[in-house]
Structure formats: C-alpha cells, structure tokens
Design brief:
homodimer; about 575 residues; alpha+beta; Aldehyde Ferredoxin Oxidoreductase Protein, subunit A, domain 2; Aldehyde Ferredoxin Oxidoreductase Protein, subunit A, domain 3; 3 domains; six-stranded mixed beta sheet
C-alpha cells in the first residue's frame, strides 16, 4: 500500500490515470489519509461539486492484512451537505481488495468537460477507464449485476445510484459486501454527489492474484491478533450483544432511556418500539430463514458479525439486516412500526444510493410539513421512490433535511452543519449532543459515540441527563475515533478497547507488528488529535466557526418527554471540546 | 413618530397588539431602526422562521413629512435566505402613511399556535387584528382588491402573496404604490417568508384624518427642501436620465461596459440587449399610451419620478414600468429579449410576492441545469407560475438560486451569503464585486452602489476593470448608504449628493430643520458606520465570517468576455472593507 491512484477526470483527452508514490502522505491511512489529502489539496472555499473538489477513497492502515476487523474504508472530500470536510466510513469488500492491490488511496480529481459517465476497472495489471453511458441512472443493484456479468463474480464494486448521478447532497457511495450486494455505504455528507460530479458511476476492483499484505513481524502479528480477537470475543457488547441482535439491539435500550427521537424529535419514546426492536427483528429473520440468515460480517476479516440478511414473508431477499440507525430513521422518527416497510425503504436507499439517516430525518421533516401523516409507511416508501425517479419532490428530499426544511418552510429541522442528527436525542443523551454539535463532520454519532458511557456504562459511566463531564467525554472519544478511523478497523472495537486495557494494547501491538513501528498509546492519541486539528482548520477556512458548533436553538427550548429535559451543555462548554 | 406598534402573534388568546414608546430606540429610523431592533432583540442563532425572529417594518426618519423623496420604508429581520441580518427597502405609500400615523415601526413577534392567517388594520383610532383564512393563497393583486372593497380606496397595503405564505426564501413583501397596486416590494432576503411565518397576510394602513409631520423649524425646512429639490433636478442622473427612461436606462450602459451578466453570468454582453433597453421600453410605453404612461414616482413626495406603467399591445395594464434589475434578471440573464414576456413575469413576481432579482437568477440556474433553454421566454413564465401553484418545482425555485443550485446539482451559482447577485457582473465592475462580497446583506447592489463611480463617473471616476481603489470606494458607499437608508430617502438622491456638496448640505439642513438636531456631515457618516457595525456583529454571532465575505470561487477563475477578466480584488483587500 505504497501508492496513490489519481484519476484526473477533467483531462483534455478524457480521464487520465496516474500512480503516485505516497510521498508526504506516507504513514497515513483511512481517515488520516483522506483528511490529509483534502486538507492539503482542496481549496476550502471551493464549490463541493466543482472541479476543485477531490474525492478520496482510502483503505485503512491495516486493510489488506489478515488483522481482524481491518476492512473498513474511508471516503473524504469537501461535503456538499455540510460545506466542511467529510470522512464517511463504510464496510464491504473493496477496502481489503484495494489494500491487497497496494493502493493507499484512489483520488478522483477534476470534472469531465462533457456530461459522460465512466466506469473504472482496477486489477493487478493496472487501471482501465471506459466511458459507459449505458449505466446512466441505474440503481446500485442492477449496476452491480451488470458489472458481475462483465467482470465476473470475484470483484467488488464502489458505486453510486441515481442519487449520486443527480448530485444530491443525501447521496451515498455503495460498497459491495461479501455476497457482492451493494449494501455497505459511505453514507454521510453527500459523498455520492461528489462522485457523481466526477462522472464516475462505478469503480470495479478485482484482487485476483494478490495476497494479503505481509506484516513486518509475522509472529508478533499473529500473536497480537489472537489476543485482540480474544478481547473482542469476551466483551459483552462486541462478543454478545452485537452478534446476537445486530446494531438494532439498541432500539429497546435507547427507547428505555427516553432518548429515542420520535416523530421528528418531538418525543423521546416510541410506542411502536417493540415491533421494530432488534429482538423482534432477529426473531423475524430466524423464522423466515433462507440461506445466510445467521449473523455475519460486512467484510472479510470481521469477527464481530453484527450483520445479517432480511427476507420477506415469502423468503425472498430484501436487504441486509437493517442497522439500528436506519430502523430508527425510517421507523420511530417517522412514527412507523413496520419492519417490512423499513426493510423495503432500506433496500430502496441502498439501490438509489442514499444515506438512510439523512433520508429518515428528511421524511420526518416532510411529515412535519404535512406531506404525509406520521406513521404512514406507504407514504414514506413513495417519498423515497420519488428520489429514484428524480422528480422535483425527489430532488428536494434527496438534498437532505436542511434543504427540505427550507423548501417546505419547516423551522424544526434537526441538523448540525446541515447534516441530520442520528438516532439519539441529544437531550436524553447529553454526551452525544456534544459530539453532534462539535464534530468536524456535522451531526454524526460515530464521530464520538458518547452513548457508550452515557447509556451502556462502557468506558466508565456518565449521567446521560446531566451536562457534567460530557465535554471531556466527547473530546476523548472524538480523538480516539479519529485514530481508529485511520486504521481501517471497525469502530465497534472501541467497546472492548475502552473497557479492557489489554485489548487496547493488543491493537497497538498489532499495528506495530504489522508496520514495524514502535507506537505507544500516546502516539495513537496524538494521531487522533492531529487528524481532528487538520479537519477543523479546513472547516474554519471554509467558513465554519464556533457558531456552527451548536445544536439548533429548539433543543435548548423544547423539553423532551418523558424526562422533560432540554440540552443543557452551554455554548462556552461546547467551545472547550477542541481545546486540546 | 414616537411609538412602536408591537404585535405578539404567539399570544395565548390570539394576536396581541401593544404600543410601546421608542425608549432606547429614539432617534432611529428606517434601516437604523430595523437593524437596531433586530440586533438587540433577535437571537442571532435562531431559525429565521421560528417564533424568536421578529419582522420590523420601519418608515424613515423623515417619512410622513413633506420632505422630497422621503417615502421609502425598511423591513428588517433575520433573513431566511442569508442567515444574517436583513434590511430590505421599498417604496410605495405605507411609509408616508405610517409616518403620519406616528408609528416609527411595526414589529411582528412570536408565531401563531395554529396555522391561521391574519389581517391587521391600522388607522388613527388604533389597531384591529382579525383572523381571515379566506385570504389564504391569494395573490397580492386579488388581495389588494379585496382590501379595497373592505376598507375603501384611501388605504395602503403591506402584504404577502403565495410565496410568503409558503415561507419561501425568495418571498418579498409588497407595498402598494400611488395607484394602490402592489408593485413596490421589499424584495430581498426572504422577508416575505418571515411575515408568512408570523401568519400575517396583510397590514392595511389608513391615514385619513392625519396630517404631515411638522418640522421643528418650518421655515428652514421649506428652504432646505427647496435647495435639495433643486439639486436633484440639476444632476444629469436624477434630473434627466432616470426621469426619461427609468432605471432601465442602464441596460445599454452596462452592456456597453461589458458587465451585463448574460446567461447565468457566462458572458458580459447580451446580443438581445437593444430589444429590452430603457430606450426601447420608453418608446414602447409611449406608443401604447394609456393613462399614466408618463413617468411617475413610486411614493408621495417623489420628484425624480423614475417609474411608469407598462401596458400590453392592447393597452391593458400589465405592471409598473419594469426596473432595470428586473429586466436584466428575467431578460439577459436568462437570454430573453422579449419585453412583453419580461413584464408578464414581473407582474407574476409581484402577484406571488417574489424577489425579481432572486427569481431571475434562479431561473438562469435552472436553465443551466437543463430545465429549459436559455432564451425560452415561455419556459421562464411557466417556471414562475409553478411557484404560484406551490408545486414542488415551484417551491424549489421560490427558495432562491442557492437552494435551486443544490437541488439541481449546479455548481455555478452566483450568490454571496446565499443571496443572488444583481445585474452587474463583479468582473466587469470590480467595485460592485467588493460590495457583493462584503455587504452585511449578501450580494446587494444597493448596499454600496460602486457602479456610480466605476461606470457613471459619479462621485469621482474609478477604473471598473482594476481592483485599485475599489475597497475604499465600496466602504465609503456602504457607510453612506446605511445612513441614507435610515432617513427614508430614496437611494437615488445619492447621485447628486456625491457630486454636489451643496445638495448634501441641503439634506443635512433638511434633517436638522425637521428634527431640531444639529447634525454635521461627520455625524451622518458616524450613523452609517454604527449601523454597519451593528449588522456585522449580528452576522458574526449568526456564524457569518470573513469566509462568507467572498464571491464564489469561479469569479476568480472564469474569465468574463468581452474583457476576458476575472475578479481581481484579493481576499486580504476584501477583509479591509469593514476596517473602520
């Protein structure tokens, strides 16, 4: 992984690929690399859809190795949704494959002069870029089928659906999973729109003939990996909760805590919760059977296996096991308690290439505007279908909650820096509110998952309803997360890492054994800090200031039942988060 | 004019009116008063459509007197379009009438609990507020007819059309002219959406029984007014150019200069220019005749009389004589060279209550997105009609150029702080580019009309194609404009003021004779500075920083024909504008 593939989509004679050495970027991976490239090479004031923006796709430092959990991938650019820097993270197979092929990053630059669509094929022999306007306005599922027919079954795809082609700010980038289905998405921030603006419909990766990357010290690496895996297995969250019920185990937990945003963040508990919980979902999946209904991972090397497959009543494949945040977005947040409808919407989101969180928040805003009643599942399905059609309504919705609020004249819009809040009400879990407000990414639960300590008691216990200690908690988590996002590791390793010092040490040993470096825990913290500092500096230059590190005013005014609580962390406290 | 009418639209038992004394606001008028109230009473981070925003409607310091040109009115709020403070300025009759009734301002506060629509009637006996949902989704023309039937012919109306009711960020507030037609608009920044969010459809003003406000020193006042009027009459712009051809006299001038933004700011000259010029327009109006085709003023007391009436081929009234910026917005900027079509769109904009500049810029962006061909007048008419219908497309377009660009995936969007640029390309007239970039209002030609010196040689001569001297010019004009906007005087008095020291002195004498004050020229400058400082501080607190004092990047990269020039004022220079 010592090279960067740069494709200039705006070259005079059509797209031009060249392979660069890592140069100054040596030692960076994942979010560390995407943010370094964006911060250095993209003018912060450029239009996100202009030729000056760049789309960076980077496997993690350990991707392509046999290290457990190392197959996550980072996508970076200036975000059309937030106007700031963006790293969106996904699972799927491309990360491991790109790692094996030796690519630390793919960088899409420039912009085609004509309105053509391209496909990129990458294998051990090099890179091939072809114009293919037959792919125009295909959904991700049909697109992947076409690529399979063309390139065989051993490939992985990185692609956009209709939403990305339309350059909508809610557009995601799909990464195929182990079953070669486009179910894993770099969802947030409109990264799919940037890929669309580059005219790239799909990047097909084939690592045939390549082997796993070799560690510097194979024995130590094997040993550390074993210890690391043992640590993951023994922690109740990564070893038991997630594998058994998937991420949707959280529905009951967060609802119980009174922090489950319901009907566009009007309430903290949803009375239809039981019908869409992880427990109900698991039971449904088990009853309906079909191959692959057992929990499984989203990428090669995953040992937590929090995913699964969702079948309809007749046993036909619908989508992957729907994640908690998606179940919430299209479920409780829209007042919908129908798992089949939610799964259907998840499938549509994946097919059109849409961020499920942004779409769920957007539909709830549209419901508040009166376009449909809360709870009307068919109306929600129809709205998402409008995006696929590219109708005017669809384009509004596909542009995300902030734009939809503007166009429909709604004042209660749960966004920070233009990005919709995920499945945790910041009044019921004050720590996550600090992360939403201050993350360089806009409202993003994964940027500093304070739910862990506020609700689960992982990494210590903090009172979710008190502002006390939340700033420090969020700061530390944001730093740690930035570092983990650089490794290519799944963020769920954080649960055992926070509780089990020996597992944290195993991870450091793993990195050192692989790279031949001699990192300490402090170095990892410094890495996280340096990534955040780079991102924040980009955002400042792009015009995002302390005033953007705020929740919408109404979270400080409207009390959330059942605790009847507002967001209580002060602006002065929020301004301390990046004080490190 | 020693009282403020405050209407709390969110009071528990329905809207509540109360009359406040001026208190701390004594001595403020027009923009000076709207910006003072907004800066002091509106939380800068509030949602512009929330109950925390306030809509302030304020006549100028001299409004209601017999001073020439004193009938302009200011509307202030936090802008749904820019996210910053807003003062939108209009002519029409309400300013003089409110002045005579003694109101320094009307302040709409709060937000109705239910989705009801109200009308407010103000006369010498007080204020009456009635729920009237029959007014729902009426255009301004029908609405005014209804009000005439109800309250008689001696009234003036302040109202919103469909756009304001839908809370679209391109919505204006209409002020009736001397013929009781809703042709004068506080257009910019979406002030109509804020009035819509307050649930107020129309404010009907009747000044029967009231007299003009008395000057402190009637003799001196009469003398100063005479001198002031003589100054206006003798200047070539206010005494000749404007009365003869109206503001549209500029079409040929700006086109000649190569600074006429054509087809969404792609070119600096429009080949259909002659067909829509002020000269052609005047000839057309004279040929078509009809009563009132002679040039006339937009408000009682106007002596420049740059307005007129536009009739169709059969002599039927269509709209007022269309202003230069509107002719440009719906003309050259959309590649349209048909005066009748442009007049028809102007009428639709006025009826729906839409900012013509924002709408023209938006339609051009939609044309760049491929929704219609440049030059297709019927398509442009149809697009505006979509707004009136409230269709999804209409809501997109009515939300302005920035949102339309986002939803349609267009990167070339000519906005600053989310507000569309008016009819002067900042590359061909670099001075106006400085004003666009740095005005507290977003892109706004009236905020510091550097065209005067760059093109007309009024107030000295500056090279329009050179960055030299533009920062100082724009700064001085922005300061002077803020002061003029506080007086209730039409901004066109600035031409003689800049060239004729004796006319400037006459204005100061006029103010002093009226108010009994003893102001100097320096005091006027200080007034302007203090207004700008207040506005800028609000914007900073709302999250608008130096990074927002910029033109979109492409103005620094794309050369504008025929001069093949880019915007050359540096960021460092722009940051000096507010350094006073």
């Amino acid at each position: 992984m010592d090279k960067i593939l740069r494709i200039n989509m705006g070259a005079d004679g059509g797209p031009e690929a060249k392979v660069d050495s890592l140069g100054d970027y040596a030692g960076f991976g994942g979010r560390g690399l995407t943010s370094a490239i964006v911060a250095k090479e993209v003018p912060p004031t450029c239009h996100p859809l202009s030729e000056d923006n760049k789309l960076v796709i980077a496997p993690g430092l350990l991707s392509g190795s046999t290290a457990a959990m190392s197959g996550r991938i980072s996508v970076g650019c200036k975000s059309p949704l937030t106007g700031g820097i963006k790293e969106a993270n996904a699972g799927g197979q491309p990360s491991q494959m790109l790692g094996r092929l030796g690519y630390a990053a793919i960088v899409l630059e420039g912009k085609p002069k004509e309105n053509n669509l391209y496909k990129v094929f990458i294998n051990k022999d090099g890179v091939d870029i072809k114009e293919d306007n037959n792919l125009c306005m295909l959904g991700n599922y049909d697109l992947v089928d076409k690529m399979k027919a063309e390139y065989g079954e051993k490939i992985a795809c990185i692609s956009i659906g209709q939403a990305g082609e339309m350059k909508l700010a809610g557009a995601s980038i799909a990464f195929t999973d182990m079953e070669l289905r486009p179910t894993r998405h770099a969802g947030r921030g409109g990264v799919g729109a940037v890929m669309g603006s580059k005219g790239v419909k799909v990047i097909v990766v084939d690592d045939a003939g390549m082997k796993a990357r070799s560690p510097a010290d194979p024995d130590k690496f094997r040993e550390a990996n074993k210890e690391f895996v043992a640590g993951l297995k023994k922690h109740p969250v990564s070893g038991e909760g997630l594998p058994t019920y998937g991420t949707n185990v959280l529905t009951n937990v967060i609802n119980e805590a009174g922090a489950y945003p319901t009907k566009n963040f009007q309430l903290g508990q949803f009375d239809g919760c039981e019908k869409i919980s992880g427990e109900t979902q698991a039971e449904t999946e088990n009853t309906r059977g079909g191959e692959g209904s057992a929990t499984h991972g989203c990428h090669r090397g995953c040992i937590i296996r929090c995913s699964g497959t969702f079948y309809d009543k007749d046993g036909n494949y619908v989508t992957k096991q729907v994640e908690y945040e998606t179940v919430w977005a299209h479920g409780g947040n829209c007042g919908i308690d129908d798992l089949d409808a939610i799964a259907q919407i998840d499938r549509l989101d994946d097919d059109y290439g849409l961020d499920t969180i942004e779409m769920g928040a957007t539909i709830a805003v549209a419901m508040e505007a009166g376009l449909a009643e809360f709870g009307d599942a068919q109306a929600a399905i129809n709205m998402v279908k409008e995006v696929g059609k590219g109708s005017h309504l669809g384009r509004i919705l596909g542009s995300g909650a902030a734009v939809t609020g503007k166009v429909l004249g709604v004042a209660r819009v749960p966004v920070v820096k233009g990005q919709a809040m995920p499945a945790y009400d910041p009044r019921g879990i004050q720590g996550i509110g600090v992360t939403y407000a201050t993350s360089t990414m806009g409202a993003d639960h994964t940027a500093g998952y304070a739910v862990s300590s506020n609700i689960m008691g992982v990494g210590g216990k903090t009172d979710p309803l008190s502002p006390e200690g939340q700033v420090e908690l969020s700061r530390n988590l944001q730093i740690a997360t930035a570092a983990v996002d650089a490794t290519g590791m799944c963020l769920f390793i954080a649960f055992p890492l926070l509780d089990q010092p020996e597992t944290f040490q195993a991870l450091i040993d793993l990195i050192n054994a692989f790279s031949g470096a001699n990192l300490t825990a402090d170095d990892v913290t410094e890495l996280g800090k340096s990534i955040l500092k780079k991102e924040r500096e980009f955002n400042l230059q792009a015009g995002l200031t302390a005033q953007h590190d705020r929740l919408p005013d109404y979270f400080q005014k409207e009390q959330l039942p059942p605790h009847n609580i507002t967001f209580k962390v002060t602006n002065e406290e929020l301004d301390q988060v990046h004080n490190f």
